[in-house]
Automatic annotation (TrEMBL):
Identification of the protein by name: Uncharacterized protein
Domain of life where this protein originates: Bacteria
Taxonomic placement: Bacteria, Bacillati, Actinomycetota, Actinomycetes, Micromonosporales
């Protein structure tokens, strides 16, 4: 497998624009339940309460994404990694901007020490 090409400053800026345009964080994994979305695993702007609330006892306006909607089977990944996918999505809201900042910080340090950065 070939090594990936270095990320350009323009590509980094595009990722940052996408992150900036998304719903503000933090995001949390929620375990919800109801007659229509039995076993709903969702990403929410509010933390999970541990009560597996049933609709209408949760605000659907807080949900950013879902990784499992069992009934009917609208969202149900074959590898059954609903919780893992939800955790990844929820933490990406915080971690992607941090990774962008870290890349820029490291590039700045390299440039300050006379090294050519890969973003040039």
């Amino acid at each position: 497998m070939d090594a990936p090409q270095p990320m350009t400053d323009e590509e980094l800026a595009e990722i940052e624009e996408l992150a900036d345009a998304a719903t503000p964080g933090p995001w949390h994994v929620r375990q919800l339940d109801d007659d229509f979305a039995m076993g709903l695993v969702a990403i929410s702007t509010n933390p999970d309460t541990g009560l597996a609330e049933r609709w209408p006892n949760f605000d659907h306006h807080e949900l950013v994404a879902a990784t499992l909607v069992q009934h009917p089977r609208y969202v149900d990944i074959a590898d059954e990694r609903w919780d893992e996918n939800a955790q990844f999505i929820a933490t990406a809201r915080r971690n992607v901007p941090r990774l962008i900042a870290e890349i820029r910080r490291l590039r700045h340090l390299l440039a300050a020490n006379g090294h050519k950065t890969t973003g040039d």
